[in-house]
Every structure is written in structure tokens, then in C-alpha cells.
Amino acid sequence: MDSILSTAQTWLTDFFDSETKKEIENLIANDTEELKERFYKNLEFGTGGMRGIMGVGTNRINKYTLGKNTQGLCNYLKRSYPNEEIKVVIAYDCRHNSDTLARTVAEIFSANGVKVFLFSELRTTPELSFSVRHLNCHAGIVLTASHNPPEYNGYKVYWTDGGQIVPPQDGEIIAEIDSLSFEDIKFEANDNLIQLINKDVDEAFFSESVRKGSFGAKGKDNFKIVFTSLHGTSITAIPEVLKRAGYNNVTIIEEQAKPDGAFPTVESPNPEEPEALKMAIKKAEEIGADMVVGTDPDSDRLGIAVRNLDGKMELLNGNQTMVLMTKFLLDQYKKKGFNGNEFVASTIVSTPMVGQMAKAYGVEYKESLTGFKWIGKMIKDFSDSTFIGGGEESFGYMVGDFVRDKDAVTSTLLACEAAADAKANGSSFYKELIDSYVNFGFYKEHLVSLTKKGISGAEEIKQMLIDFKENPVESVQGSKVIWIEDYNTSIAKNVQTGEERNIDLPKSNVLIYETEDGTRIAARPSGTEPKVKFYISTNVKLENASDYKSVNSQLDTKIEGIVSELNL
């Protein structure tokens, strides 16, 4: 506690503003537990940048923690590009303080002689990623905490290729930040270096989104969509992109259309949660819509609900939508003829079905660690190849390479194209999914996510993963474990034969069990939230579409048994 108190007291100097000092003095005098939570560590970059609860302290999002990051990034950019005019672009979402924090970040860049393009109003994360290359910038920043609760905010850094920072840049930038003190931050803005941007960049992004996401689908006039932005940024982009692509039957949930960082109509602005789309699904049932689309606050994730075999709206999971969007893209490329250098991509905790599908089409499949920064890195590393599309189980997808992060704007258009075309051909999005299960194998996934907050929660997560590794699972629902993949050691071991193989991916705190019947169980801590996640994937052969309901029920029972067996 002495070291925490000492760290907190460094925030009582004249460099810090009076409100900050007053709050810290109050914490020191009256709330030592809260003081510990705010100062026991520094916020760190995870899979999605830096995210945390807003407030004073080294373990909080505020103008000083973001300022130190920005100052470190300025120093790194200047060292990396010593003879160039450095340019960055900054966007922000609907969250509390996002606009003022974005302005502060812009002012620090300008104080360091960096040219800043700052969006005049909130914009989507995919538009920010697009803008980095469109404006020939060296880096980009978006102020967002994605789908986290209202008390959170965050800071994502993009590099010159429009993708999030990856090794070695991330480590080098962090080292630069860690070498600084807060007093090194330059807050004195040079307003001449800050240029507000809006409609010109919007126009370029919308045009490219329509170009990349449109495939001449039939039946647009007869396809009804219900759309909700869940109080986030996608309201600035998706309605316009759908309109330009020819979708005129779009009903917007007006109660959720106004950007609002309190997210007043939902418990969580996360389209992975059925509750978040409850209002939109109700409207869809009322008006007989074909599809519901909902996006998270910064518009990089999308949730989709469509009519199932019984005609009821059903929320699909991220793996299911990824499979269908990938299949649709592969079909479009196949019509034109493959060149032989195309690839699709996904992550180690997503459904193996994408790999099976790619194999069936004769297209290369690449797999990365969790997080779209790794898929973005693939595009840069394999620049001679053509990236068709790719996604991950957590409701993110990317169409082509004009955006280098998950993109709910273009993905929404792509999903509508696939579904409208299916309906026009006498099928449906849901029936296409079942047909895919018949053709490529019936893969079904389930996520167990356990939240563990604070200091004690971080220790609990750490211990759970240690236990999962040191007390290895020997069988799952009667099927022997064959492979254990340890991404911390980069070794996959066949526990039956003793065979070992190297994992050619960066080290990561992930452990995966694979059984003889193809069941996979992965465990990892979240990179952006105080959670530990367990990913379960099962599969079976589906002989006929008519067997879907009974086989689906069997897989549900199996997954329930796995959850129970592992005490999750």
C-alpha cells in the first residue's frame, strides 16, 4: 500500500489540474480500497488497444494517461520518420468524454509539431482505419471502448497500413511511453496543425464500402431490414451505405438511433447479447422483416438475426454469420474465377468450419491469434496475395482490405446482399447456413465468459488459467484429448503419442485442447475486459438438411455436458 500511496501522491503536484488533485486527496483520506484500484498498475495495451474505466489514476482513462500514451507515440513517430511531416487522423465514438479526450489527444499531437486530421463529429472505427491510408497518415487514433459498459473508454492505435499496431511497433511504443513521466506531456496546442474533417472523407469511405460490399444481389426491393445502431456511431454510415446500395426497405429503431454514451435502452451495447437486439427483433416481428442488424458503439461488430425454419427471428452467433459471409464471398470470387493467390482468414478460437470451407473451394486459409490486428498484419505480410474476407467469433468481419480492422458497415451490406440473394432464389440466410453444414460439416460453438473485476479478479483469472494448464483435461464427454496446444510455449503436443510440433504464431496466453472426435476447448483471458473466456467447438456430419433440428439438439446437449463437466 505504501508504494500505491506514493504513486498517488505524485499526482498532487502543480502539473495536475485542481479537480484531479482534489479527487485524489479525497481518495487518500476516505477510500483506500478505491485508491488501490486506481493506482495499483498502469493501463496496458491489449488485443484491442488500451481500455479502462474513466477517472483519475494510472489505472484509469483520463487526459493524463491518454496524454502520456500520445506523447510516447509522438516521440516514436518522430524517431521512425525523422525527415517527414508526421500526419495522424483521429476519430471518436459516442461515449462520455470521447469528444473532449479526442480534442486533448489532437492538441498534444499538434504541440509536438504533428499534423492532425480530427473528425468534427463522431465516426465509426472502420472509417478511421480507412482514413489512415486515404489521407496518407502515419498513424490513426480512435477513442472508443467498443461494447464495454458506459463507464469505460479507450484508445486504439493504428499504423501506416491502417491496421492496429502489432509487434514490433507495439512493444517499442510501450517502451517509449514507459520511459516518460507525466510531466513530459506537451499540452500546449498548435491550432494551426489541427484540421477538422468530415464529409469529404465520408464520401470516399461510403463509396468504397458500397463498391466492396455490393455484388448485384437480386430481390433488394423485396427485402426488409430492421437496423439499430444501439446509440452508437453506425448511424452515421450504415443507413447511407444501404441506401446507396439499393436497400430502401430499412426500418431504423429511432429510440436507439441517437448517439448516447449512457446507452439508456440496453443493459449492454453489445450485439452479442440477445437483450441488446430485443427492441429491433420485436419490430422485425411486427413488420415481417427478413433481417435485423445491430452494431456496437464504434461500429466494428455486428449482430444479425434472421428468420429460422419456424419463421421466428433468431440471433445468429459470430461464427455463423462469418461462415455465411465467407461462403457468399467465395461464391462471388468463384463466378469470376480464382487467380490462385486468394486467402480467407480467421482466428484460433473461432470455428474450424471456415478452414474446411476454404479447403473445399481450393482457397488458402490463414489462422491468427485472437484480434483483428493479426488479420490486418496478414494482409501486410502477404501483400502479393488477395484477401477475400475474414472474421472472428466475436461478431467481427472484414471484407477485402480497404479497411484493416473489423468493419460492421461493409459487413452489414455484405450480409444483406447474401440474404436478399438467397431469398430471391427461393432460399434464406438460415437455409443457406444449414446447407453449409451439410456441405462442410456441422460445427457448433459456445462461449463461456466469466467476469472477474479488480485486483482480486485479475489474480483469479491468472490462477484459473494456471489450473487449466497444470491439471490437463484427459477426455471430454468420453472423447480422449489428443492434442494440447500451448501458445505460451508455442508447442502443440500429442498426449497420446508424445509427438510435438511448433506453433508458428506469436506467444499468447491461450491453451487449446482437441479431442479425437474434433471437439476443441480454448481458454484465454480477454485482452480488453476483466474476463476469462472458454470457447467450445463441437462438430458432426450432417447428412441431410431435414436432420438439422435433431442433430442441432444433440450438439446442444453435448455442449451442455461439456460446460458441466468442466465446471464452467
Automatic annotation (TrEMBL):
One of its GO terms (molecular function) is magnesium ion binding. InterPro entries: A-D-PHexomutase_a/b/a-I, A-D-PHexomutase_a/b/a-I/II/III, A-D-PHexomutase_a/b/a-II, A-D-PHexomutase_a/b/a-III, A-D-PHexomutase_C_sf, A-D-PHexomutase_CS, Alpha-D-phosphohexomutase_SF. SUPFAM superfamilies: Phosphoglucomutase, C-terminal domain, Phosphoglucomutase, first 3 domains. Its cofactor is Mg(2+). Gene3D superfamilies: Alpha-D-Glucose-1,6-Bisphosphate, subunit A, domain 3 (3.40.120.10), Alpha-D-phosphohexomutase, C-terminal domain (3.30.310.50). Transmembrane segments: none annotated. Belongs to the phosphohexose mutase family. This is Phosphoglucomutase. The lineage of its organism: Bacteria, Pseudomonadati, Bacteroidota, Flavobacteriia, Flavobacteriales.
